[in-house]
Amino acid sequence: MGGTSPCASCKLLRRRCTKDCIFAPFFPSDDPHKFAIVHKVFGASNVSKMLQELPVQQRADAVSSLVYEANARMRDPVYGCVGAISFLQNQVSQLQMQLAVAQAEILCIQMQQEPQMPESQQITVSEAERSYLMQNNLMGGMPQLMSFASPSNNVGQEPLKRESLWT
């Protein structure tokens, strides 16, 4: 850094900060905690070697990643970033499941509210066609929705029970 105050790494390591210090552009003196965490997890020597091997234009991104990983390792020493990623993936999966359930509930409500089609316009599915669709998984995993058009079912006579999975 030269004439002004040394960078956070040189200050922590108690060494003189030169003008070509590899840490100076990424660890300013006003944020010493940033380097302290990275140093504690990875070590100053290892970070220095990593930064020297990278092209100059990629170093800022590398430092940002190192800081993120070091913070994650401080919170969760065993899994680090992987633990955070797994948690978020599980959360996305749960939210997708909740969305699918909500969409199915909406579909059921819409089907309840649609006027009953006259029998001349109803589409009937024979048992052979139904069996083919079931075997080839063409019913989208919801066979109960395909049976609504069959003339033998009494859809209009029995209202659907409204149960919510959210309560």
From TrEMBL:
Residues 5-106 form the LOB domain. InterPro entries: LOB. PANTHER family: LOB DOMAIN-CONTAINING PROTEIN 12, LOB DOMAIN-CONTAINING PROTEIN 4-RELATED. Belongs to the LOB domain-containing protein family. This is LOB domain-containing protein.
